[in-house]
């Protein structure tokens, strides 16, 4: 950090380093304001926080510093080839929960273990959703694997509208515990 020529570069470089170390992302992928981090780093470096605006206004410098720091830390950017890893991690986590938080955390942890810079939040969310869908399909397939054809036909009958009930038997059974 001290080797940078200007205050703006020193502050920006320090912020980028902090972001890559934890949470493991770059300024471009963060998707939220970094003002509190910039203010804290500026105090540590005894640099006015306003100088960060000059740094952030130079996209090529920001990109160059991110690449340099990633190489020094042994990190690489996420690519489309990492999507199977992300979905597999999400599917594994989704076997035990349907909650988005733990599933997303598993994707982030898998990326960190693999020394991959976290992509944009939207990419992580999409992978988590795809992994949860994969886990649900696997669970449904496992449940239906031992269902006989006769049992499957009986289950299908529960989904057909019954004229006397005015709804499907499944809907009627589902409403039963709360019906008077």
What do you see in this structure?
- The protein has 180 residues and is mainly alpha-helical.
- Helices cover 64% and strands 2% of the residues.
- The protein has helices at 7-21, 27-30, 35-45, 52-56, 59-73, 83-94, 100-113, 121-144, 149-157, 169-175; strands at residues 76-77, 116-117.
- A two-stranded parallel sheet has the order 1-2.
- Helix 1 crosses helix 3, helix 6 packs across helix 8 (121-144) and helix 7 packs across helix 8.
- The longest helix has 24 residues, at 121-144.
- The radius of gyration is 25 Å and the shape is elongated.
- The N and C termini lie far apart (71 Å).
Average predicted confidence as pLDDT: 91
Main beta sheet: 2 strands, parallel
Can you list the strand order of the major beta sheet?
Answer: 1-2
**Percent of sequence in beta strands:** under 5%
Distance between the termini: 71 Å
Structural class: mainly alpha
Strand element count: 2
Could you tell me the radius of gyration in angstroms?
A: 25 Å
Shape: elongated
- Fraction of residues in helix: 55-70%
Q: Uncertain segments of ≥5 residues (pLDDT<50)?
A: none
Note the total helix count.
10
Question: Secondary-structure element sequence?
Answer: HHHHHEHHEHHH
Summarize the helices and strands and which ones pair or pack.
Blueprint: H1 7-21, H2 27-30, H3 35-45, H4 52-56, H5 59-73, E1 76-77, H6 83-94, H7 100-113, E2 116-117, H8 121-144, H9 149-157, H10 169-175
Parallel strand pairs: 1-2
């Amino acid at each position: 950090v001290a080797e940078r020529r200007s205050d703006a570069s020193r502050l920006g470089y320090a912020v980028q380093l902090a972001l890559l170390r934890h949470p493991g992302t770059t300024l471009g992928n963060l998707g939220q304001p970094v003002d509190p981090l910039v203010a804290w780093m500026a105090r540590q470096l005894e640099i006015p926080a306003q100088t960060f605006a000059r740094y952030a206004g130079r996209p090529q410098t920001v990109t160059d510093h991110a690449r340099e720091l990633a190489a020094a830390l042994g990190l690489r950017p996420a690519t489309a080839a990492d999507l199977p890893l992300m979905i597999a991690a999400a599917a594994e986590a989704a076997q035990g929960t349907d909650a988005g938080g733990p599933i997303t955390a598993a994707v982030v942890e898998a990326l960190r273990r693999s020394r991959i810079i976290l992509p944009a939040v939207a990419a992580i969310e999409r992978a988590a959703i795809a992994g949860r869908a994969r886990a649900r399909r696997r669970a449904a397939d496992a449940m239906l694997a031992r269902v006989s054809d006769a049992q499957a036909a009986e289950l299908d009958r529960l989904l057909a509208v019954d004229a006397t009930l005015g709804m499907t038997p499944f809907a009627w059974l589902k409403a039963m515990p709360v019906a008077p």
